[in-house]
Recover the amino acids of this structure.
């Protein structure tokens, strides 16, 4: 019997392409097509508090986490939160006071994380030519505030600390961008507001201006908030948002100068103002007990002065979403529960 042995080179020419074809076919069957980025609309305030969100947008951290983020700008946090309440945005950046008013107004929202704190962001700016040289001189004066905001709570806290009953002043509701003109024309004698408006008013008033801070009275917390319905339906998206913010937090800590440049570019503002006041802010992704205490303190203030429909203390743990941050950065959750 004659045995035929095929040349090795001939066998290789047949087997190698066959193996390659089988490998590619198997891998092709195993690999799933990449999912399209998940769309999310972020209502952010065009002030310095939500710097971590600004950085996450500028550095494409949301995109890295598989999110197609559409930024939606608002002058301050209260209208940003309102966009979420009205279903015009998915998440918002907002200070603690509007959150309290929303909860007491029956809105179903969740705090996802805090992103900034400061005890020197709010201040009262006054005209000295209106006879204001010290805090007690505010008695009988007209004070402009943006109702339902951190500036509102700070004004009441400051007046109380200096023995002035809120009935002994005239409170005038002003939008932040109306304050400079109101001071200049004499519509008000002083305003209670936040940076960068405080810095801008200081420069405009010059030697005629005087600023009162209250570092021991109030520490604000700026937060990221979503509707409870959105959080329930999109827990994976929430984790992606938080991971992007944690990346931004690390960048800000490691590159403060570059962070200020990026934020100034994003907000189209003077970087010199950021350089001047940067150190008053702490930018950190966290949920801590201080936030809970702050919300409860402001609720007591709101109830006392009958500023909202609800007259009892909510359980704010029902309005703080812990699972997201516990999954992404568990050491940042320091709330007693």
């Amino acid at each position: 019997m004659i045995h035929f042995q095929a040349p090795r080179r001939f066998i290789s020419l047949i087997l190698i392409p066959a193996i390659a074809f089988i490998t590619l076919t198997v891998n092709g069957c195993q690999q799933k097509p990449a999912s399209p980025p998940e769309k999310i609309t972020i209502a952010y305030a065009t002030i310095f508090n939500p710097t971590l969100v600004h950085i996450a947008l500028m550095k494409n951290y949301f995109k890295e986490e598989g999110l197609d983020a559409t930024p939606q700008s608002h002058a301050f946090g209260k209208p940003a939160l309102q966009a979420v309440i009205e279903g015009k945005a998915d998440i918002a950046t907002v200070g603690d006071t509007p959150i309290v008013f929303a909860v007491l107004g029956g809105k179903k929202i969740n705090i996802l994380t805090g992103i900034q704190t400061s005890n020197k962001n709010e201040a009262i700016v006054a005209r000295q030519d209106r006879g204001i040289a010290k805090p007690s001189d505010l008695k009988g004066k007209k004070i402009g505030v943006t109702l339902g905001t951190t500036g509102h709570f700070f004004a009441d806290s400051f007046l109380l600390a200096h023995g002035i009953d809120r009935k002994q002043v005239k409170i005038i509701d002003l939008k932040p961008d109306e304050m400079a003109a109101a001071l200049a024309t004499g519509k008000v004698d002083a305003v209670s507001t936040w940076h960068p408006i405080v810095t801008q008013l200081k420069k405009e008033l010059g030697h005629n201006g005087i600023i009162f801070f209250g570092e021991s009275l109030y520490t604000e917390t700026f937060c990221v908030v979503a509707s409870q319905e959105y959080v329930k339906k999109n827990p994976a998206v929430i984790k992606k948002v938080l991971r992007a913010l944690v990346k931004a937090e690390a960048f800000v800590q490691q590159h403060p100068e570059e962070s200020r440049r990026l934020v100034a570019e994003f907000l189209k503002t003077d970087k010199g103002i950021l350089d001047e006041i940067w150190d008053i802010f702490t930018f950190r992704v966290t949920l801590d007990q201080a936030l809970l205490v702050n919300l409860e303190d402001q609720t007591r203030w709101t109830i006392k002065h009958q500023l909202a429909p609800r007259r009892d203390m909510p359980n704010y743990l029902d309005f703080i979403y812990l699972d997201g941050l516990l999954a992404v950065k568990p050491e940042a959750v320091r709330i007693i529960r």
User: Anything to note?
Assistant: The mean pLDDT is 92.
